[in-house]
Design goal:
This protein is an alpha/beta fold. Helix content is 40%, strand content 15%.
Length: 289
């Protein structure tokens, strides 16, 4: 029989605000990803990967652009405006691009665990594979940056309570594998705790472009309109995530859209440009215990 995993949750009060009484926190997320050998991206610019277990060279090459070129462009844009990003980091990236990841960490970008390979999804892994995935990814990131990661976001946001408890036992303070609320909440297990900091998925370049077929212009317009309306209403305390992938909007045709959003947000005094690690540090004292 599967192990019974009980979890109690604690939520923030309705009057919660971000630092300096701000309502909106904005996080710029860059997916810095690699796939394990004999696996590749499940999307490609042609719109239909080859069927079965055959490696699609088109999709494989498309995905490799992420670590080869695209993410460098996105990091350069963010740093040009003095903005730190939250980096979804494959263990393979830490293993193969350790020096680059160290420079990013030293700049102030937040390095987040994101599975060993982008194709390693928790629902497909057995218990030992789950443990090995977390442990290996964590050790590789720490070896590359000199800092143990405290946050985790799974590919496709695919962890469950079992994995989230495993993460807490490995010393993780927070995860972003939640879509069920607007604000952080604390998950308390019998032997550990971890903070869920939900991800907002409205501004994610991959489904925007690949699933819905929308343009970079629409991406910018959707974000700017939403930001204008939320600043105007000033009623709710929220997190806005902007999620870009090196192999999607890391390309010239999409990177300009990321830059327009970064530039606008860097000029808005009413926004808290932050990371989930900073959100954890700020929000944790508002919970009991």
């Amino acid at each position: 029989m599967p192990e019974d995993i009980s979890c109690k949750t604690e939520h923030l009060n309705d009057d919660f605000r971000w630092p300096k009484d701000k309502r909106l926190a904005v996080i710029f997320n860059v997916a810095y990803e690699m796939w394990t050998p004999d696996n590749c991206s499940s999307v490609n610019p042609m719109g239909n990967v080859l069927s079965g277990n055959i490696i699609d060279p088109n999709a494989d090459s498309y995905g490799r652009y992420n670590a080869n070129r695209g993410c460098d462009r996105l990091f350069s844009i963010a740093e040009r405006y003095g903005v730190v990003t939250s980096i979804f980091t494959s263990g393979l990236v830490a293993e193969n691009n350790a020096n680059k990841l160290k420079l990013l960490s030293d700049f102030g970008h937040e390095i987040i665990g994101h599975s060993y390979g982008q194709d390693m999804l928790f629902p497909y892994l057995n218990n030992q594979q789950k443990e090995d995935n977390i442990s290996t990814s964590t050790k590789l990131i720490e070896a590359a940056t000199g800092k143990r990661p405290h946050g985790w976001i799974s590919p496709r946001i695919t962890s469950d309570l079992d994995v989230q408890r495993r993460l807490s036992r490995h010393g993780y303070k927070w995860h972003g594998d939640a879509l069920d609320d607007d604000l952080p909440y604390l998950q308390k297990f019998s032997d550990s705790e971890i903070m869920a900091i939900p991800v907002t998925i409205d501004f994610n370049d991959l489904p925007h472009a690949m699933r819905f077929g929308r343009t970079p212009e629409q991406f910018v317009k959707m974000f700017m309109t939403t930001l204008d309306k939320l600043l105007e209403s000033n009623r709710e305390t929220l997190i806005l995530d902007v999620i870009v992938h090196g192999h999607c909007y890391g390309r010239p045709a999409g990177a300009w859209a990321f830059e327009e959003i970064v530039q606008r947000c860097s000029q808005e005094n009413e926004l808290w440009l932050t990371t989930r690690g900073k959100i954890f540090n700020y929000a944790r004292p508002f919970f009991s215990g």
